[in-house]
Amino acid sequence: MKKSLIALLFFIWGAIVVSAQNLPTVRIVNNTGYDIYFLFVSPSESDEWGDDLLGDDILEDGKTFTYQLPQSLNRTSLYDFGVEDEEGDTYSKYEVKITNNARIVFTLDDLD
Q1: How many CA atoms lie within 13 A of 41 on its CB side?
Q2: How much is the pTM?
Q3: What pLDDT score was predicted for residue 17?
Q4: Cβ-Cβ contacts under 8 Å for 23 (sequence gap 6 or more)
Q5: For residue 42, how many C-alpha atoms fall within 13 Å in the half-sphere facing its CB?
Q6: CATH number, domain 23-110
Q7: Averaged in consecutive runs of 10 residues, what is the pLDDT profile of the chain (112 residues)?
Q8: Residues 76 and 45 sit within 8 Å (Cβ to Cβ)
């Protein structure tokens, strides 16, 4: 019984480690000419943005923010990205097909 429980715990721990390793990382680049104060990412099938990923931080113009997505690519690979700059202007990218280490660049062309 004790060996079975230990084996089960190792199996669960291994599954968690493998799952965490399959979470894709994206790099969001600010090339808008303005500092970004809010950053939102959500799966495209979601109707809501969720929490601001920057918190109290600011993504300065020309800088990059790296984020690990909460779902593996085999679960969803389409994401929406939204940012708000220092003047309250918003920029969006919808249904972006994500690969691991994707680079998402925001420019003035993405202004809503």
Answers
A1: 21
A2: 0.78
A3: 47
A4: 68, 69, 70, 71, 72
A5: 13
A6: 2.60.40.2890
A7: 53 49 90 97 92 96 95 86 96 94 95 95
A8: yes
- The shares of helix, strand and coil residues in the chain, as percent rounded to the nearest 5, are 20, 40, 40
Measured at the alpha carbon of residue 48, what is the angle toward residues 45 and 49, in degrees to the nearest 5?
105
Of 28, 25, 26, residue with least CA distance to 91: 28
Residue 46: which of 83, 75, 66 has the closest Cα? Answer: 75
The two most distant CA atoms of the chain are separated, in Å, by 63
Beta bridge partners of 103: 27
Contact between 7 and 54 (Cβ < 8 Å): no
